[in-house]
UniProtKB/TrEMBL annotation:
Cofactor: Mg(2+)
Name of this chain's protein: 4'-phosphopantetheinyl transferase superfamily protein
Alphabetical UniProt keywords: Magnesium, Metal-binding, Transferase
PANTHER family: ENTEROBACTIN SYNTHASE COMPONENT D
UniProt organism field: Micromonospora robiginosa
Amino-acid positions noted as binding Mg(2+) in the UniProt annotation, renumbered to this chain: D105, A106, E107
């Protein structure tokens, strides 16, 4: 599903169910030692998807440990992202020579709780969401907005090493399956390249899920939209 949203350089492995009784990979047991059973299952399956994706790039199986913001720590020369929700787990990876960063997210395609919507939106977003609901009632645009911001954060953090709040990116959703996130904070990058100003992403709704993805090319403008491959 998410594969359709990313350029050809990205490798995606997804799962719609867990393997009964599957144990954590050696070296990851402590990460879910106290987790609830559901959280444990989604972690194990998503990490397995990530290892399978890395194998397709030629990397041997290894533990995938978390960084300071719980982000997956990928092998040198790889960028990637993991997502999981009820009924879906996925991982996407790519060579860093092709993509500078990527972020993926999946959510149940259902309304976002009102109290959450008030926390994740900027001043102009509720008005745009209302207009989209009026013209395209078959999409839960509030949930899509939330998912888009999750993907943006996952692409942002490896490039900046900083937190990005929901209120610090203003997202414009295109009914044609694209979105733009305009950054409202300093986008200085840790590699010294020109500051980030916006991210462009893609989205789809299928099988009761909403999925979003952001891919930042390594060798072209950060304003360039990702090639669907």
């Amino acid at each position: 599903m998410i594969e359709a949203l990313l350029p050809a350089a990205a490798v995606v492995v997804e799962a719609f169910a867990d393997r009964p009784g599957e144990s954590p990979y050696p070296g990851e047991e402590d990460l879910v030692a106290r987790a609830a059973p559901g959280r444990r299952r989604e972690f194990v399956t998503a990490r397995r998807c990530a290892r399978e994706a890395l194998a397709r790039l030629g990397y041997a199986p290894a533990p995938i440990r978390p960084g300071p913001r719980r982000e997956p720590l990928w092998p040198a020369g790889v960028v990637g992202s993991i997502t999981h929700c009820d009924g879906y787990r996925a991982a996407a990876v790519a060579p860093a020579t092709a993509l500078a960063s990527l972020g993926v997210d999946a959510e149940p395609h259902e309304p976002l709780p009102e109290e959450v919507l008030g926390v994740v939106t900027t001043a102009g977003e509720p008005r745009r969401l209302a207009a989209l609901r009026g013209d395209h009632a078959g999409v839960h645009w509030d949930r899509l907005l939330f998912s888009a911001k999750e993907s943006v954060y996952k692409a942002w953090y490896p490039l900046t090493g900083r937190w990005l709040g929901f209120e610090e990116a203003e997202v414009t959703l295109d009914p044609a399956g694209r979105f733009t996130a305009r950054l409202l904070v300093d986008g200085a990058r840790i590699d010294g390249r020109p500051p980030l100003r916006a991210f462009h992403g893609r989205w789809l709704v299928a099988d009761g899920l909403v999925a979003t993805a952001v891919a930042v090319p390594s060798d072209s403008s950060l304003f360039a939209r990702p090639d669907p491959g």
